Amino acid sequence: MFDFLKRKRVLPTFAPLVTDMHCHLLPMVDDGSKSVEESLEVMGIMKECGFEEIRLTPHFNYPRFPNKAADIKERYKKFCSDIEKKKGDRQIPRITSVTGEFQVGDGFDEYLETGQLLTYRFTDATECSEKGVVLIEFSLHQKRMGLEDKVYRLLTEGYDVILAHPERYPYLDSHSEMLQRFKEQGVYFQVNILSLDGFYGEAPLKKSFDFIENDWVEFLGTDMHNVMYAQALRHASVNKRIIKLLEKHEFLNKKLAVGN
Which residue, 76, 80, 79, 145, is CA-closest to 106? Predict the structure, then answer.
């Protein structure tokens, strides 16, 4: 099943993106990296695949990962320090900010109301709202009530919104009316690079290309968690269909500003 992970060839295919804006490499805060050493190994592979910068996006998902913004910021500072001490001569992407991936579900309103939404900004400040751009996700298992209301609230309260991996929600298809309404409201979409290589199965693979061909996708992200994901990214780097896609389409990753 995982024979493809053994392949060693790798290309700097993702260099045009410059920045990976969705990864879980801050150790021991969610289901991503378990150590600084694991993060270093993963980042070395990401560098080989062409990434120059990464934005850390730990899960904020109550009650599974009930992270707090202040704690995440402190862990981020220590992580950056540890990386500098331990990287040696290894070539890795620059770590330029920590934001978050906020699940729209239980606890989300508290994050919004207490000002804990860690956000991105664009290099050109006029291209995003004053409060910045927040990365959100939905449940991967079932559609919850009130999703559209919560997204609308974010927009009306002055945030821009990126919806993470819309291709992975089994209850949203390529012609979803809800996704169409989100696009009409100005919501950005971020597709997972590994979806484009079939890592999550046939349905996300098909939908990811459908969304891109429909001009619905502004960002690509690795959604990197661990070494297995990194080996899958290596595999994706030699996928001819992905290489052609990056030649044809331009994404907004490289327009994200350094820092929060």
Answer: 145
Helices (H), the chain: 36-48, 69-86, 108-113, 147-156, 177-185, 202-213, 227-237, 240-248
List, in order, residues 6 or more apart from 223 with CB less than 8 Å away: 22, 23, 24, 164, 165, 192, 193, 194, 229
Tell me, what amino acid is at 165? H
pLDDT tens sequence across 31-48: 999 999 999 999 999 999
Question: Residue 16's Cα: distance from chain center in Å?
Answer: 16
Write down the pLDDT at residue 2: 45
Report in angstroms the alpha-carbon separations of 131 from 121, 125, 127, 155, 211.
8, 11, 12, 10, 27
> What is the per-residue pLDDT for 259?
75
Q: Average pLDDT over the chain, rounded to whole?
A: 95
| pLDDT for residue 241 is more than 50 | yes
Q: Where are the domains of the chain?
A: 16-255
Distance set, CA 36 to CA 107, 211, 226 (Å): 29, 35, 11
Please name the residue that has the structure tokens 């400040």: 125
Q: Tell me if the domain spanning 16-255 has CATH number 3.20.20.70.
A: no
User: What are the helix (H) ranges across 87-146?
Assistant: 108-113
- Report pTM: 0.95
Identify the pLDDT of residue 260: 58
> Sheet holding 188-192: strands in order across?
59-60, 101-103, 133-137, 160-164, 188-192, 219-221
DSSP letter at 8 equals: -
DSSP reduced 3-state for 192: strand
In 3D space, the residue among 72, 101, 46, 95 whose CA is nearest the CA of residue 222 turns out to be: 46
Q: Which residues, in sequence order, are CB contacts of 78 under 8 Å at separation 6+?
A: none
